Amino acid sequence: MSHFAKIENGRVVTVIVAEKDFIDTQEGTWVQTSYNTFGGQHSLGGTPMRKNYAGIGYHYDYVMDAFYEPQPWPSWSLNQDTCWWEPPTPYPDDDDGPYKKYRWDEDSTSWVEVT
């Protein structure tokens, strides 16, 4: 069995586990996706498939043959290698310990500490 995403207008509308023979009998566009693929890497050392595992609401780019999440903020850009969205300002790398948390502020295009 494999995971398949149904695509409508470039968007994932459902993801199911099925045999290829079953998918071949279904209407619409179905694209196989790998549960173990994240950012163009296979977590178990296998061959990555379509950059990321498909999720409902994700985009499917036919040219890149890749799944990726909807853009979280207008200022973020899509990394073509990983198909992950990246902020224009990197997440803070503090020496103050792992307990600081930040939220994205689109107006200032920066991370703001959550207190």
Characterization of this structure:
With 115 residues, the chain is mainly beta. The protein has 2 domains: 1-70, no CATH class; 72-115, no CATH class. Helices cover 3% and strands 38% of the residues. A hairpin with a 2-residue loop joins strand 1 and strand 2. The longest helix is centred in the N-terminal third of the chain and has 4 residues, at 20-23. The chain starts with a strand and ends with a strand.
Chart the SSEs and their pairings.
Elements: E1 2-8, E2 11-18, H1 20-23, E3 29-33, E4 37-38, E5 41-42, E6 59-61, E7 66-68, E8 77-78, E9 85-86, E10 101-105, E11 110-114
Antiparallel strand pairs: 1-2, 1-3, 4-5, 6-7, 8-9, 10-11
Provide key terms for this protein.
11 strands; mainly beta; three-stranded antiparallel sheet; 38% strand; 115 residues
Would you tell me the overall average pLDDT?
95
Unreliably modeled segments: none
- Number of H- or I-type helical stretches: 1
How many E-type strands? 11
Secondary-structure element order, as H and E? Answer: EEHEEEEEEEEE
Radius of gyration (Å): 17 Å
Number of domains: 2
Structural class: mainly beta
Helix content: under 10%
Shape descriptor = elongated
What is the compact description of this entry?
This protein is mainly beta and 115 residues long. It has one helix at 20-23; strands at residues 2-8, 11-18, 29-33, 37-38, 41-42, 59-61, 66-68, 77-78, 85-86, 101-105, 110-114. It has 2 domains: 1-70, no CATH class; 72-115, no CATH class.
